[in-house]
Amino acid sequence: MSEAAQSHAGSTKPFVAMGKPFAPKDEAALRESLKRCSPSTFEAAVQFSKTGNPEHLPAVVIGIIERFVEPDLRTKLKDADDDLRLIEDLGIDSLTMMEIVILVEEVLQMSINNDELRNLRTVGDVKTFIDCKVRGLELPKPTKFLPIEQIAAVMPIQPPFLFLNEASVSSSGANGKYKITGQEFFLQGHFKDNPVMPASIMLEALGQLAVLFLLEGATTEPGKVISPTTIFFTGCEGVRAHRVCRPGDILTLSIKPKRMKMPLATFEGAIRVGQEKAAIAEEITMTFGFAEATHHQPVPANAAAGGVNGSAAGHSPAPQRTAVNA
Amino acid sequence: MPRVFITGLGFITSIGNDRASVTRSLRELRHGFELYPPFQDASIPVKVAAPVRGFSMDSTDCEDWAFPAPYSIKREVLRGMAPHGVYAWCAMLQAVADAKLTDADVSNPETGLYAASGGSPFLMGHMLQRMHEVGVMRCSPLGIVASISGTVQFNLVAHFKIKGSSCGFASACASSSHALGFAYDDLALGRQKRMFVVGAEDGNLDAILPFAGMRALSLQKDPDLASRPFDVARDGFVGTGGGVVIVMETEEEVARRGATPYCEVLGWGQSSDGHNVAISHPDGHGLRAAMENALRATGTRSEDVDYVNAHATSTPIGDTSEAKALKAIFATPGARPAVSSTKSLTGHGLSLAGAMESGFCALAIRDGFMPGSAHITRLDPACEGLNIIRSTLPAQPHLVLNNVSGFGGANVSLVFKKAS
User: Which of A8, A92, A253, B28 has the fewest beta carbons under 10 Å from its own?
Assistant: First the structure.
């Protein structure tokens, strides 16, 4: 293990774990490294080491994360979706994240540098990241977390018609939250003495999240950015409301791009309240247009982690954590 | 200046892991020595040590460690700790409970913590070896925090949410007495109302055996004979580890909380030999000056001292040096305190020694006994004239002196008094 680790240390190239045959001593080393992980984690790591098949990676990575999570929080990982957050939901601090990385490096024979680490906020981020590293693919843009101030700064839509309190945007989609306060102006009439969030406004909120994705997450042509003044709703398909939403409910919104070809972008969207399905839209389509990027030089994908966000609005990047306070 | 009292104690030592068993060991002169398994290799000339019992921390992986009931420590806390951090943690829990402190008493801007340890050569050695073998990026992110000198206060201050003064002291075997002395100053000067004083050491092979290189350890193979301070046949000290915590409070806090103190801390003195990096001054000049300073600072006459807990580690040179210093201080007619070295029972705890033996003095004053100096068969003629007690006296000392000496010739003498 040490030879491979040393020869690879410091390299930024992704490691393809198919160099030499998997020997019994490699298996013994793997067993020792993963001695506090579940047997299925070890099995997946052995299979990955033998075959190099990335299908085994999620089991390895989730198994390693699980080993570092406090026992009473581990159930969350059992049926976790990719949005499960490492810090907020699993109690993993930056030092534990480093321990996870060290073990992942050891088991998968790769090296990961600190800058890459900073952007991993969810279980999905980690899985995607490891997958890209092993396959030698370019890393996706990091998930960006936007509080209401930043959302309002970039969006063409403004209060009182903005229905997002917070959002996270990655290259694969966007998630957001909106709490129905009961003070929304339209609830006075919708309905008489019976405030219910209009389904049309719920669809609007999904549309707004799609706008935010276009501005903050979408990959555009070099030198171009999507102009906030060019985005408009064009149509939707398969919209269904499943649950009545009232003041006090927190809407959890998510959208994922299905197709994107200038000047049209089509998304699928869903809203949950807690674990309950509230509404879905099979397709929401927007039209959009480009503007010349004037603020930023094009940067290589790896360097983008530092926070150049490609938006003409030019707000500051999200604050980043440092692990140590020495 | 406000008076200062000891109101809580916690012990993880070779002679007991709580106050009651430590007291029994001191009264009955039960020692903590054994043929230490890691020393039984033929290449190791030293055979005896005084390990802490009930804890299993031989692995460099803290998740393999096991502790006696009722102690349990979460992984995220443990990963920044050395073995002696665990001892100190357990002693801290005891001391907080013993002093009946609330969370608010522990965590506020007027409560601080001073600690002393030599760090963890065991974990440091492991980390450096791993760094050279597999690269620094595969080393534990908290390896430094767990192993460098200072690890005790990093951990205790963070996890017990200490908000007042905190730092560590590094004067080898004088360290935790320095910590206690400066904690006393902070309380007497009104800077703090309450101080925790912590001494701790790993006391394992990596912490003890290097002292064999300087020929300071006893090569005795009989655990009953290895540590015998003041005996003519003594041949070096026996290593030990553990953790001791002392709670010190101002009289105002003692009154406010209605606490029952063990004793009063009257004050202290220190002095340096200015002589040799590792060897005590042959005539005990520095230690004598430290005791003079302590007596002067506290307005104490030498004839008022009832008991001296000596530093005497069972090394040929060190014990003689201290005997000469004691004879000089107690030359006054009527000055004939009982003298003993409890290292005859515990072994030498290095940075732990000062806090551990101050804790013993506090027990002796409150419970009314003076522990004997065990294992003396034939008293060294150089010690004749001193009242070295070979068995425990069932009498309450009213005024007690506790001595330590460390590398570089650092000497500290602390003065404790029956609370009134």
Answer: B28
Per-residue CA distances from B280 to A220, B135, B236, B343, B411 (Å): 76, 42, 14, 17, 9
CATH number at residue A275: 3.10.129.10
Closest to A5 (Cβ–Cβ): which among B74, B76, B135? B135
Going by C-alpha positions, the residue among B84, B112, B100 that lies closest to residue B192 is B112
Considering the domain architecture, whether residues B281 and B246 belong to the same structural domain is answered as no
Q: Domain containing B311 — which CATH number?
A: 3.40.47.10
Average pLDDT over every residue of A125-130: 83
Pair A218, A257: CB distance under 8 Å: yes
Task: Verify that A114 and A150 share a domain, yes or no.
Answer: no
Same domain, A109 and A200: no
- Residues B4 and B180: beta-carbon distance below 8 Å: no
One domain for residues B275 and B241: no
Q: A182 and A289, same structural domain? A: yes
Helix axes A39-51 and A57-68, enclosed angle (nearest 10): 140
Same domain, A254 and A275: yes
Say if residue A51 is in the same domain as residue A109: yes
| Share of residues in chain A with pLDDT > 70 (%) | 83
Assess contact for A269 and A257: CB atoms under 8 A: no
* Phi, psi angle pair for B316, to nearest 5°: -55, -50
Residue whose entry in the numeric block shows the structure tokens 């209605």: B258
First to last CA, chain A: 31
- Tell me the two tokens of residue A286: 């927007």
Residue type, B234: R
Question: Could you tell me if B243 and B314 lie in one domain?
Answer: no
Question: Chains A, B: CB contacts under 8 A, how many?
Answer: 34
In angstroms, rounded to a whole number, what is the distance separating the alpha carbons of residues B88 and A228? Answer: 60
B252 and B275 in a single domain? The answer is no
Which CATH number does the domain housing residue A90 bear? 1.10.1200.10
Percent of chain B topping pLDDT 70: 100
CA distance A138 to A131: 10
Residue B256: name the closest of B133, B413, B110, B389 by CA: B110
Sorting pLDDT into bands at 50, 70 and 90, what band is A324? low
Q: How far is CA B291 from CA A182, A193, A221, B305, B412, in A?
A: 76, 85, 81, 11, 8
- Same domain, yes or no: B184 and B294: no
* Cα B359 from chain centroid (whole Å): 8
- With b for 16 or more beta-carbon neighbours within 10 A and e for fewer, the B282-295 pattern comes to eebbbbbbbbbbbb
Contact B189, B2 (CB under 8 A): no
* Least confident piece of the model among A4-13, B202-211, B264-273: A4-13
Q: Which residue has the tokens 């009961």?
A: A182
Does residue A73 sit at the B interface (CB-CB below 8 Å)?
no
- A70 and B142 in contact by Cβ < 8 A? no
- End residue of a domain, out of B257, B276, B301: B257
Pair B328, B290: CB distance under 8 Å:
no
Q: Active-site residue among B31, B178, B348, B375? A: B348
Residue of A nearest to B135 (CA): A6
pLDDT band at A295 (very low <50, low <70, confident <90, very high): low
Measured between CB atoms, which of B76, B133, B138 is closest to A102? Answer: B138
Q: Please give the Cα distance from B39 to B43 (Å, whole number).
A: 9
Contacts of B137 in chain A (CB under 8 A): 9, 102, 105, 111
Report residue B360 as tokens: 């013993």
Question: Terminus-to-terminus CA distance in chain B, angstroms?
Answer: 17
Range(s) of the domain holding residue A36: 2-135
Find the largest Cα–Cα distance for chain B.
Answer: 67
